[in-house]
Amino acid sequence: MRVKRGDAMVKIVAINAAVFAVLSLLRVWLLLRGSEVEPEQWLGFYADSRFAHQPWGIITYMFTHAGLLHILFNMLWLWWFGKIFLECFTSKQLVAIYLYGGLGGAALYALMCALFPAISGGYLVGASAAVTAVFIVATLRLPDYEIGLLFFGAVKLKWIAVVVIALDILMPDGNIGGHLSHLGGALVALLFHYALRGGFDITRPLNAAIDGCVNLLRGGFTHRSREPRINKAKGTPHRHKATRQEPNDIADMDIILDKIKKSGYAGLTAEEKEKLFSVSSRLRHDAPHDNG
User: Fold this and answer.
1) 285 or 219, which is more confident?
2) Can you tell me the distance from the alpha carbon of 129 to that of 19, in angstroms, rounded to the nearest whole number?
3) In Å, how far are 61, 209, 227, 235, 273 from 230, measured between CA atoms?
4) List of long-range contacts for 155-158, beta carbons under 8 Å, 24+ apart
5) Is 88 in contact with 138 (CB distance < 8 Å)?
6) Which of 36, 59, 175, 244 has its CA 20 to 30 A from that of 150?
7) Could you tell me the pLDDT band of residue 278, with boundaries at 50, 70 and 90?
8) Is the dihedral of CA 255, 87, 267, 272 positive or negative?
9) Contact at 8 Å (CB) between 19 and 43?
């Protein structure tokens, strides 16, 4: 279902919106106290020595925005082009490309700051590098996909990408750090596209790590229910319980496990998750056991 596949995109937008709301409230509180500190700088990415004191910025910067128009524009682009992305790829790949794009943008910005110290001194905030990666991946997969633009009519994705990348290279507004991060996100998209054509999906290692962390946390907070132990009286013949496995259980489990391999646990529908839980619980409880 499209809604289910788009859950990851909704969550990304929600995280960006939540961070923006919290920082906006914090900014008001700081102004009331007479401070002019910009709270987003605490979550920004620094490419100089300050990175050692704020290493989390390499992740948090891509969920942080400096103004209403800033977040509105980025989230609209993510929503529009993210839906096109999901026509060809999974939600898990969307999350990975978003994160990789943000990391690629930070990496290129840091590299250029090291080569040209004159452009350093500031910090990066915004999801534009991550969104650019999602946009370019969608364009590389569906270059002739047409979208309607005000005053221009139907325009193919490839021509929008050409204009966007050209503007980033020319950097007409002086936002050097922002444009460099966009190009970093575009390079990540190119890497993903050509690696996938070669048979390797670069999003798999990251998704495997994310799934491992999620499963670890879920295992730590999940309390498994246990059936009461029944001790048999001495001399009572031991009998195994009859197996209640239904004929379709194995086939259903194979389908669900194959889907988990392709798109992870998060890609399952609510019905599939319920089926996985009920069948695994039944098989576990029906397995032969000895209480002697």
Assistant:
1) 219
2) 17
3) 56, 40, 9, 15, 30
4) 157/84
5) yes
6) 175
7) confident
8) negative
9) yes
Interacting residues of 112 by C-beta distance below 8 A, sequence separation 6+: 119, 180
Q: Report the pLDDT value the prediction gives residue 292, as an integer from 0 to 100.
A: 42
**Can you give the three-state secondary structure of 181-228, one letter per residue?**
HHHHHHHHHHHHHHHHHCCCCCHHHHHHHHHHHHHHHHHHHCCCCCCC
Phi and psi, residue 73, nearest 5°: -65, -45
pTM here? 0.73
Over pLDDT 70: what percentage of the chain? 77
Q: How is residue 177 written in tokens?
A: 């750090």
Residue 42 neighbours by CB under 8 Å, 6+ apart: 54
Which residue reads 């495997």 in tokens? Answer: 208
Delimit the domains of the chain by residue range. Answer: 2-204, 248-292
| Rounded CA separation 51/15 (Å) | 23
Q: Is the distance from CB of 45 to CB of 123 less than 8 angstroms?
A: yes
Summary count for the chain: helices (H), strands (E): 11, 4
Please give the Cα distance from 263 to 95 (Å, whole number). 12
Q: Give the DSSP H/E element, type plus range, for residue 15.
A: helix 7-32
